[in-house]
Amino acid sequence: MTDPVPSHRISVAPMMDWTDRHFRYFIRLISKHALLYTEMVTTGAILRGKDNHRYLDFSKEEHPIALQLGGDSPKALAECAKIGEDYGYDEINLNVGCPSDRVQSGSFGACLMKEPDLVAEMVAFCKSKVKIPVTVKHRIGVNGKESYEDLHQFVSKIQKAGVDHCIVHARIAILEGLSPKENRTIPPLRYEDVYRLKSDFPNLPITINGGIKTHAEIKTHLTKADGVMVGRAAYDNPFLFADVDSLYFGSKEGTITRESILQKMIPYVQSVRMSGGKVSHILRHILGLYHGEKGAREFRRYFTNGMHLTSATESILESYLQR
C-alpha cells in the first residue's frame, strides 16, 4: 500500500487581499487536494480583536487549510497557534517572507530573516502548544544577509527548533526601496539555492515558491523539491488547478469544466448573500476563470459590470450559464 501524497505537494500561496475564504472556496471547487493558505493574520488582530470569526472562520470544504500567522512574539504566536488549532486548521504557518512596509513596521515578515534565533524560538513555542504541523514561509535571504551560507544557517536553526516544513520563496527580499509587487519581480529568482537547500536538509520537507506559472515548471521543480507553491498564477489563472488532482495526487475523478464550477458557485453565493455578504466580494475572485480562452474578456466584462450592482444576486451566474 503506497503512502498518501502529502497535501503540500501542490499549494496555493497566502496572498493579502486575495486568498480570503471566498477565493479558497472557489479554488477548492477546482482542486480538492491542493493545500490552501489563509491571508496572513497578525497576532494582534487575533488577541486584541473582538471578532475572531472574521479572521479565522472557514468552510469545512476548504480542508486541507493552513493558517498563516504574522508576528514577532513567540508567546503571542504560540497562543494564536493554539487558537488556530482549536478552530480546526490543519497547519500553522509563520510569515517570515512578506517584505511590505506595513509588515516590517511590526517587526515581522521578511525582516525576521535577520534574526534566526528569534524565529527558532517562535517555532519552538508554537510546537510546544499545538499538535498540528508548524511551518515557516521565508525568502532565500534579505539584503545584507543574502548568501547561501546565511540561508543555510537560518534553516539549520529553525530545523533544530522543530519546524515541520519550510516554504521557500526563491528570491531575496529587498527591505528598503522596493514595493511588495517589485519584490516579487525585481530580485532575481535563485531556484538553485532552494534545490541546494533540499540537498543539504534531505529529511526536512521543502516547498519551492516564486514565479511558477505552468505545469511544465511545476513538474521540473518537483524533481528537486518536495512541493511547489503557486502564487499569482493561481489567482490570475485558477483553472490551472483543474489538472492538479490528477497530475500530482493520483485522483481518478472525472474532468471538470468551467461551467460546472460556476454552477456550483450559485448556492454558495446565495448562502453568503443571505447572510449579509456582498456578491461582488465573492465574484471578484472568479474573473480569471477563462484566462487564455476565447471569450475571456467578455466573461470579465460581464461579471465586472454586473456584480457591483446593488441588485446583484446569484442570478448573475445563472443568467451567464443560460446564455
Describe the structure.
There is one protein chain. The protein has helices spanning 21-30, 43-48, 52-56, 74-87, 101-104, 116-129, 148-160, 180-183, 191-200, 215-221, 232-236, 244-248, 258-274, 279-283, 296-306, 315-321; strands at 10-12, 35-37, 41-42, 65-70, 91-96, 134-142, 165-173, 206-209, 227-230. The protein is of the alpha/beta class and 323 residues long. An 8-stranded parallel barrel has the order 1-2-4-5-6-7-8-9, surrounded by 4 helices. GO terms for molecular function: flavin adenine dinucleotide binding; FMN binding; tRNA binding; tRNA-dihydrouridine20 synthase activity; tRNA-dihydrouridine20a synthase activity.
The largest pleated sheet is described as:
8 strands, parallel, barrel
The total of helices stands at: 16
- The coarse overall form would be globular
C-alpha Rg (nearest Å): 20 Å
Order of helices and strands: EHEEHHEHEHHEHEHHEHEHHHHHH
- Going across the biggest sheet, name each strand in turn: 1-2-4-5-6-7-8-9
What is the tally of beta strands? 9
CATH class of the largest domain: Alpha Beta
Any idea what the CATH superfamily of the largest domain is called?
Aldolase class I
Strand content: 5-15%
- Low-pLDDT residue spans: none
Number of domains: 2
Helical coverage, percent range: 40-55%
The span between the termini is 48 Å
Structural class: alpha/beta
CATH architectural category of the largest domain = Alpha-Beta Barrel
Mean pLDDT: 93
